[in-house]
TrEMBL record:
Domain of life: Eukaryota
InterPro entries according to UniProt: NAD(P)-bd_dom (IPR016040), NAD(P)-bd_dom_sf (IPR036291), UXS-like (IPR044516)
Species, as recorded: Fagus sylvatica
Pathway given in the UniProt record: Nucleotide-sugar biosynthesis; UDP-alpha-D-xylose biosynthesis; UDP-alpha-D-xylose from UDP-alpha-D-glucuronate: step 1/1
Protein name (record): UDP-glucuronate decarboxylase
Length: 408
């Protein structure tokens, strides 16, 4: 399915010379030693001479602190065997693409990567993202922004790809085939340049779950032809493609299944429940509860998610991993927390439920706790005020509460 895929043929053929000297030491190390498939691609011709290495492999792995970040770049390790990086060869950080980096989650991830010292290229078509989310990096030589739709192929030389580009709310995802085609293109890029690829999948792959809480081994209960299917099934297909590229082409992949996340920079009117309630309460409109309001969701603050994504990318496990906050709230409880935070008199208005709305959602995060050493830290009552002050500013232009977007 994967080898010889259309994306590959859209990129330059493997044998053609590159536009500039190859600088990665890792392309030929990306093959998994444990992958024994006879159809595996032979990358041996990509061996690159030591003098092109400019990446410091001495940076410590944030999870296994005693190990270098990219141990597999063994050639550089030998070169640097004295433990001292020769002047002029000092690393400039990893080169990382964040597709969808101008969006809500993506822009917070970009902040962390830049802060860590990496070079970041944001690829975004601004369908739901905004330049304002990343404008504070303009002028930083380690930051680039490319307006590009990932349904079209793209060639960039990078070490890692965080693939987030995808309309994530019902209002938007019905109009865009990003999930499948965009993921295929970005996997093609990862395969071509030997980059590690992380897919931001979703708890929606569990559909209306028959198992509670949801463990990664649960295969889900998804309607393949419903109004939400383009998103749910799109992400399921994206996971399939990701695993096929891993097994079939030796691409290093990671899969995160993200549960409801909230925080500053969320799209204001995109129909997601937290942003809906907060915007409505601020505007003194009634909060719309669909159905009886007893359906449950878990709400994760964005900084917790970003930490989980980075641990997953740098760690050794493919996943999938549930990344979410296991605290479970009914919609009515959420509305109450919003009332407490914004306006105790905010009204609630009931509307008929939407089609295929899951009744329950709560992640089992045992796997992420054990293998990534990760768990969320920010409670809803602590994270919500940070989002509220951002929304207030964007809705009313109120600059009084300008400041932190991080919760400790
Ligand atoms: N926020 C959540 O609660 C949540 C939950 C589960 C999964 N996710 C996943 O996390 C990722 C980020 O979600 P988010 O909440 O930040 O949403 P978002 O809409 O704020 O961000 C998505 C970004 O992708 C960009 N984009 C969309 N289609 C594109 C295309 N074809 N080419 C280039 N860029 C494109 C948008 O402009 C936007 O900047 C998505 O893949 C989403 O499915 C998010």
């Amino acid at each position: 399915m994967v080898l010889g895929d259309p994306t590959d043929s859209l990129h330059a053929p493997r044998a053609t010379p590159r536009l500039r000297p190859r600088r990665h030491c890792h392309s030929h190390h990306r093959i998994h030693p444990h992958t024994s498939s006879s159809s595996r691609v032979d990358y041996s011709h990509l061996t690159i001479h030591d003098t092109y290495f400019d990446h410091d492999t001495t940076r410590l792995n944030p999870i296994n602190h005693d190990k270098p970040l990219y141990e597999h770049r063994s050639a550089f390790k030998n070169y640097n065997s004295g433990g001292k990086v020769p002047l002029g060869l000092k690393r400039k950080g990893l080169r990382i693409v964040v597709t969808g980096g101008a969006g809500f989650v993506g822009s917070h991830l970009v902040d962390r990567l830049i802060e860590r010292g990496d070079s970041v290229i944001v690829v975004d078509n601004f369908f739901t993202g905004r330049k304002e989310n990343v404008m504070h990096h303009f002028g930083n030589p380690r930051f680039e922004l490319i307006r590009h739709d990932v349904v079209e192929p793209l060639l960039l030389e990078v070490d890692q790809i965080y693939h987030l580009a995808c309309p994530a709310s019902p209002v938007h995802y019905k109009f865009n085939p990003t999930n499948v085609v965009g993921t295929l293109n970005m996997l093609g890029l990862a395969k071509r340049v030997g980059a590690r690829f992380l897919l931001t999948s979703t708890s929606e792959v569990y559909g209306d779950p028959l198992q509670h809480p949801q463990v990664e081994t649960y295969w889900g209960n998804v309607n393949p032809i419903g109004v939400r299917s383009c998103y749910d099934e799109g992400k399921r297909t994206a996971e399939t493609l990701t695993m096929d590229y891993h097994r079939g082409a030796g691409v290093e992949v990671r899969i995160a299944r993200i549960f409801n996340t909230y925080g500053p920079r969320m799209c204001i009117d995109d129909g997601r429940v937290v942003s809906n309630f907060v915007a409505q309460a601020l505007r003194k409109e009634p909060m719309t509860v669909y159905g009886d309001g007893k359906q449950t969701r878990s709400f994760q603050y964005v900084s917790d998610l970003v930490e989980g994504l980075m641990r997953l990318m740098e760690g050794e496990h493919v996943g999938p991993f549930n990344l979410g906050n296991p605290g479970e709230f009914t919609m009515l409880q959420l509305a109450n927390v919003v009332q407490e935070t914004i306006d105790p008199d905010a009204k609630i208005e009931y509307r008929p439920n939407t089609e295929d709305d899951p009744h329950k959602r709560k992640p089992d995060i045992t796997k992420a706790k054990e293998l990534l050493g990760w768990e969320p830290k920010v409670e809803l009552r602590k994270g919500l005020p940070l989002m509220v002050s951002d929304f207030r500013k964007r809705i009313f232009g109120d600059h009084k509460e300008e400041g932190a977007t991080t919760a400790k």
